[in-house]
Amino acid sequence: MDDKVHVSVIAATVITLALAGLAPHALWKTSWHGGLERFEGWICNSIVGVLALCIAFAYLPPFRVARTLRVALALPVAHLIAIVAAWAMWTAIEPEIDTYMVSPLVTPRALGTLVAALGVTCVAAGFAIARRGRRERAHVALMIALANLLLLGLWLPIASGLLAGHLHWGTRGIEIEGATNVIATALVPPLVCAITFAAIATRAPALAARSRHATLALLATTLAIAVIVRFGPSASASALYGNFVPALLAAIFVAVAALLAAAITAWPRRRSTRDALVGVIASDDASVGGFIVTSWLRGPSTITRPFTLVTARGHVPVPAGIALDVPLPTSSTMLSSGEGIAVVRPGDEVAIDGFVAPEAGDHPFRDGGAPQPGPHGLALVLPHPPRADLAQVALVTWRPCVAYLAIIFAIGLPALAGAFVVR
Fold first, then answer.
1. pLDDT (tens digit per residue) in 149-187
2. Helix, strand, coil: what percent of the chain each, to 5?
3. Do the strands 307-311 and 372-373 form a parallel or antiparallel pair, or are they unpaired?
4. How far is residue 11 from each of residues 21, 394, 411, measured CA to CA in Å?
5. Summary count for the chain: helices (H), strands (E)
6. pLDDT class for 307, splitting at 50, 70, 90?
7. Residues 6+ apart with CB under 8 A from 392
8. CA-CA distance, 169 to 266, in Å (whole number)?
9. Strand, coil or helix: what is 166?
């Protein structure tokens, strides 16, 4: 890991603590509190306190994993805990608070519906885009969730400025004209763009690589515009942005859940090789299988080439594109985007799981009895896989975790910009 990773983690940590400390105080100042004044300290400071404890617990104890990497892996889970705590706290005290200044379009009570709808959309799009395998689908869904979080966080300040004319101030707070259109304009474009980006990155990686610099420049320009808009004097735009904070929290929730799903699928599975074909790889290529870093929004992708497996039963051709279920080496942490590392080479002993015996008379060319790929596909595994541990999960997920923290830093800048403007 280079210095950019450490800086990203530290910046995201600072932004996290700043937002968790400022947001409850800002909400408290714009609300009537009934008889809750005695709980002001707990309501305004408990979330930032919990986050600080989580960060300290991840950073301070000695362990063989780097401290910064531990914070990168733990901070998304801390965010999830903080969101659940904030939702529970707000739901509990909402009947006691007269929110004259806040009349949400997207209420905290609707957070569960938002999370479910966004989660189902990411999973469905991941299944549609991914070519094969539960791990690949989980990583594509993760890419969509992270991209949507970034685009939503950058688009909301701009959309709030453009849609501020739909807000009118009445005797009980904000009145919205065409609320359905306002919600659709704010929430749909980022999700559509995120799905499109994931489709291009997965199905046309060469095009995504050529467009990387233009994409980064566009994102940087959008971030600058978002910060400028939040520094503007419009109270209506600020109020509308505040109305969509639950939607932003839902996007964070889904992104962290996608990270956890990717971590679960990254846990090494101890496949039984009793029915697998064990043999030695014969190929003209220097590398038969390996991992490649295509994006920081997902774990490394696998790539396999065709080869011949020399077994005691003879030579068995193995096609390209089969699943690669082998451990990710620690040297993969040094890879940059677009770089790969070989893990299976000619001469290695491997096991291929998924071959089945041909049915008699099923095809005239199967009379020789050669094993055929089964209906569930083929997977390359090691005959004697190493013991599974959390290190493998960390190797697979640390990049999207760092990307998540960089996204939190980026979308936190417009939020903080608005918090420091007096209207």
1. 999 999 999 998 888 888 777 665 667 777 788 888 999
2. 60, 15, 30
3. unpaired
4. 15, 21, 12
5. 11, 13
6. very high
7. 266, 267, 268, 327, 328
8. 51
9. helix
pLDDT digits (tens, 9 = 90+) for 101-134: 444 565 656 778 888 999 999 999 999 998 777 7
Which pLDDT does position 25 carry in this prediction?
Answer: 66
CA-wise closest residue to 182 among 251, 244, 121, 230: 244
- Is the distance from CB of 158 to CB of 229 less than 8 angstroms? yes
Give me the DSSP letters along 8-72: HHHHHHHHHHHHHHHHHHHHHHTSB-TT-GGGHHHHHHHHHHHHHHHHHHHHSS--SS-HHHHHH
Distance of CA 312 to the CA centre of its chain: 44
What gap in Å lies between CA 300 and CA 337, rounded to an integer?
10
Whole-model pTM: value is: 0.80
State yes or no: pLDDT of 197 exceeds 50: yes
Contact 346, 283 (CB under 8 A): yes
Q: Which amino acid is it at 253?
A: F
Please choose, from the candidates 302, 310, 301, the residue with its C-alpha nearest in 3D space to the C-alpha of residue 283.
310
Q: How far is CA 50 from CA 80, 175, 233, in A?
A: 11, 35, 33
